[in-house]
Prior knowledge:
disordered C terminus, 420 residues, five-stranded mixed β-sheet
Amino acid sequence: MQLRYNFRVYPGPGQRTALARAFGCARVVFNDGLRARREAHAAGLPYIKNTDLQKQVITAAKRTGGRAWLGEVSSVVLVQSLRDLHTAYRNFFASLTGKRKGPKVAPPRFKSRKDSRQSIRLTANGFSVRPNGRLYVAKVGDLRVKWSRTPTSVTLTMDAAGRYWASFVVDTTPDILPEAGTDTGIDLGLNHLAVLADGRKIDSPKFLRRAEKKLKRMQKALSREAKGSNNRDKARRKVARQHARVRRRDWQHKLSTRIIRDNQAVFVETLSAKGLGRTRLAKSVHDAGWAQFAAMLEYKAAKHGRTFAKVDRSFPSSQVCSACGFRDGPKPLHVRAWTCGNCGTIHDRDHNAAKNVLCEGRRIVAAGRAETLNASPSAGRTRTPLPAQRVEAGTHRDGQPAVAGIPVFRGGEDVNRVPG
């Protein structure tokens, strides 16, 4: 399986200039490739192949006066930029034909130097890790990194707050935990982020609500600055740094890890966060971060050999009595407790829903519809590749290196921490 790790990078002044040059060259090559393919399409010509496009916008362009400066950066950066363009087109075509599931994918667009996020991607021949722990990047130099794991490929990114990150995808084997004797179902909500089937309620930290006044004040200060001025750029970075503090992924990582370690099977009801994000509850829904929390549970279950399944949101978890199975009908949101009309059991709405999610999740696993690492083979289990995910901050436990036989650097930094 593959996992993604983020590490904070601290480039010096000269290295910042070299990275800015690399970001710019990668952006120009991407835009030149996109422009060439659009012009070919408008002229009725066939789709330009990747090798021909590379010769046109990289190899031949370096020999011209207008693009000679492309030779100042690593060729790996330029080639990977065109591969990103190819991936964008491939996803767009797959979305048009219906091969790609989910929301429709738009065609690739031109990149701008004013985009808040700039990045370059390098394969193994474009970077290396020095024995002293520095990250060598071709034509940039040795970068100081806060390590806690060992990389195999790297993406260098500058975010809206002006911070630099090195993102690595690491091939690793599952770290199977000792078997736990309990399963749990999780009902997600707004006042309580998660209610577990055993009755535990985990309050939502509401980081965005807490920072709302400060963000409002900083946004006002940003709106007063003249467009294009240095003061406006400084104010924009301050707002971006405050938003980075609001995200607080570390809290969700710790909670999801604790739930996975304590339970052998975890079941979650899927919620349409995208749809609810267009209602009057939008701010609270985005503050809760349901989708991100569920994604953490999913990849950690695969990583640690736990069972994970999603219960469809059409399942009436809040209408069914968990004691007798009687369906008592829909209830408005302000009804937080109700009495079963069949058996007379008094239910807490969220706790009852969590217990129903647990029962439905077990039924899904028994029917062989859960794609997990440890589901019973007789249940018709299928194995699908797990997408690379950004995992919890901090270091590994002693004796648990990320990749067997490779030393692990200690002293990892919380990826959500914003200095200052």
